[in-house]
């Protein structure tokens, strides 16, 4: 069935923000037979804060070795990601209405060869965090210690063993350039005493849990000092179902 994706409600922190309203408008442009609207909307606020206030990458610096890298591991339901990229000029918003069409570069899973600004092709659960660890190690090998690497994963991805291997390596290795954003919409099959953040903390990460709709709390968490350790931010949003 083909339908128009409803725009997410504006949160209490941005009810007067014309830019935030524009993001909602951009998401509403994307029509098609999509099945992951909750996945997309769960990431919107975190992506907005990252691209607006934290990430050091622009359309002019996408090939600069010194840029920050953002890896979207939660690649299913990428409408919010596409909207934020369009809003920041990585590609024109005229591409958005074709989302999911046969001849559109904006597929149901992002393709790094087709989507300007995308660092990886994603959507297969459990790949993004290991790729982010490898990215940091690759940057270190080149002597590039300033670029920060951010990866956004869903809490359900923690059902995949590949992520736990990455978590277990990154903490003891002191991968300070690595930042993992976990969108927690209560989709994970398994849990941990003390919550998701405790899983990272037990492996030597700095870890914090915040309201995933609170922009100031997100920004404070994203900019938390964590010398010598990777950082995990668990952003809690409303349950998927």
TrEMBL record:
PANTHER family: TRANSKETOLASE N-TERMINAL SECTION-RELATED. Its cofactor is thiamine diphosphate. Keywords: Thiamine pyrophosphate. Belongs to the transketolase family. This is Transketolase. It comes from the Bacteria. Signal peptide: none annotated. It comes from Streptomyces durocortorensis. Residues 36-223 form the Transketolase N-terminal domain.
